[in-house]
């Protein structure tokens, strides 16, 4: 154990040791006053939690209602012991195993202790006693009713989730050197949401535990939780498979077209920024982000010599490259989870005035996703430094988008991107094909001014019709100059 701890950074070692000592201090009163602790309840709940953690080791949180039932039924010091055996016996996938088990036990012990303490402070045990009297005995008329007990249970469940998440963030900061913002801000909303369900489930377990039906009835609450856990794991496996498919396609495009390496991810990010400003969320927001990432997948069907050509394209070569949206649509036709993203892949080079390709759609005929991706695509093309041009500053790129709004781009999408950039800024690495050791140039408003005479004819198909203006060699009649 000592050698395993030495493998961790000094700050992480100190953090883990402090957590273990704090958990021991919280549980110490139960060990000291053994007579006052219902050890049979502690042992049974700990056994159920241990079995549940091993059965569904990849998502042990499915049995969080067991921990919450312990927090509701037991004093805080005794409740802190319920999670310890399961945490110590659950399989650890990455070394060092000893410190990881000790950390997991300390983290869960402290979280359950905090939840039990919060439940007691909210007079939850008194409300639970009244709810648990299902045998027809006299009920305390002054005891809180079910709504109060439910509110106390949900509050305690949120305390458990918040404590566990905050403690986990500390490990990410000390052991993995993540920034505090990345460690705590992003995970909190998603981490706390399941506990809105776990709280009532834990309360149901505690009520049935104290009822004449006993612990056997209480354990039935775990059956729907286990079914949900199985569905949750399957969903995440499917999601991981989707992400792997997307990554493989993007990497294939990046390998083939070295001039636009990283462009796909940045277009996906800019598309998501626009989508949020338009009020999109959930599945539509994710679909639009994927649309931005995959918008150029059709370049896999374009001859590499055209994508990397240094001189101007002939009309025939240009017509070949203008087929890449249709190639892309054919490539992703069998990927059912893309949904609306397919429309963006096919139509992101259409123009509002009808002079785009492949079908010359105009105005509202162009799908919404395609109008979003068109703006994000052009913005990144203008703000990226490549071998043939320096990045334009963000304000300059936005002004160019506004100038072309109404003819090439949807003005609503341009305004949404401008608002998002004002609010969040744009911090993307560019220099798509430069070696990493040379460093990248940030494409932000403080970046270097573009060269006034930078010829974009060397872009070949890599830049394609991304950027508006004279540089748009592939877009028919690009605004600001002949194509």
From TrEMBL:
The chain crosses the membrane at residues 66-89, 110-128, 148-167, 188-209, 215-235. CDD domains: HDc. The keyword S-adenosyl-L-methionine does not apply. Coiled coil: none annotated. Residues 430-483 are annotated as: Disordered. Pfam families: HD_5. Residues 238-433 form the HD-GYP domain. It comes from the Bacteria. The keyword Disulfide bond does not apply. InterPro entries: Cyclic_di-GMP/3'3'-cGAMP_PDE, HD/PDEase_dom, HD_domain, HD_GYP_dom. Residues 260-382 form the HD domain. Keywords: Membrane, Transmembrane, Transmembrane helix. PROSITE patterns: HD, HD_GYP. This is HD-GYP domain-containing protein.
């Amino acid at each position: 154990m000592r050698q395993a701890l030495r493998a961790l950074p000094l700050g992480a070692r100190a953090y883990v040791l402090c957590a273990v000592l704090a958990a021991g201090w919280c549980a110490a009163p139960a060990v000291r006053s053994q007579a006052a602790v219902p050890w049979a309840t502690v042992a049974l709940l700990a056994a159920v939690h241990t079995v549940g953690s091993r059965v569904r080791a990849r998502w042990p949180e499915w049995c969080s209602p067991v921990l919450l039932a312990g927090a509701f039924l037991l004093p805080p010091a005794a409740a802190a012991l319920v999670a310890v055996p399961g945490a110590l016996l659950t399989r650890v996938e990455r070394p060092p195993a000893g410190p990881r088990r000790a950390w997991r036990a300390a983290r869960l012990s402290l979280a359950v202790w905090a939840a039990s303490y919060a439940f007691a402070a909210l007079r939850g045990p008194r409300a639970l006693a009244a709810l648990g009297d299902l045998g027809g005995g006299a009920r305390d008329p002054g005891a809180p009713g079910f709504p109060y007990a439910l509110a106390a249970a949900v509050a305690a469940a949120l305390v458990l989730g918040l404590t566990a998440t905050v403690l986990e963030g500390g490990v990410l900061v000390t052991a993995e050197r993540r920034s505090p913002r990345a460690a705590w801000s992003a995970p909190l909303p998603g981490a706390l949401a399941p506990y809105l369900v776990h709280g009532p489930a834990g309360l149901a377990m505690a009520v049935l535990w104290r009822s004449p039906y006993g612990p056997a009835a209480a354990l039935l609450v775990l059956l729907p939780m286990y079914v949900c856990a199985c569905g949750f794991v399957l969903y995440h496996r499917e999601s991981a498979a989707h992400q792997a498919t997307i990554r493989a396609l993007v990497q294939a495009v990046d390998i083939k077209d070295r001039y636009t390496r990283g462009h796909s991810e940045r277009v996906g990010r800019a598309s998501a920024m626009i989508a949020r400003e338009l009020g999109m969320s959930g599945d539509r927001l994710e679909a639009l982000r994927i649309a931005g990432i995959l918008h150029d997948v059709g370049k896999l069907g374009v001859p590499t010599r055209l994508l990397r050509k240094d001189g101007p394209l002939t009309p025939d070569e240009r017509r070949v490259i203008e087929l890449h949206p249709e190639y892309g649509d054919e490539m992703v036709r069998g990927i059912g989870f893309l949904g609306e993203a397919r429309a963006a892949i096919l139509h992101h080079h259409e123009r509002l005035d009808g002079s785009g390709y492949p079908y010359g759609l105009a105005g509202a005929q162009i799908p919404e996703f395609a109008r979003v991706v068109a703006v994000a695509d052009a913005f990144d093309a203008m703000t990226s430094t490549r071998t043939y041009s320096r990045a334009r500053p963000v304000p300059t790129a936005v002004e160019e988008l506004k100038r072309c709004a109404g003819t090439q781009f949807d003005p609503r999408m341009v305004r949404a991107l401008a608002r998002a950039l004002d609010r969040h800024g744009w911090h993307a690495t560019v220099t798509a094909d430069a070696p990493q050791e040379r460093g990248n140039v940030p494409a932000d408003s403080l970046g270097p001014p573009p060269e006034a005479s930078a010829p974009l004819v060397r872009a070949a198909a890599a830049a394609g019709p991304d950027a508006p203006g004279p540089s748009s060699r592939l877009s028919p009649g690009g605004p600001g100059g002949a194509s």
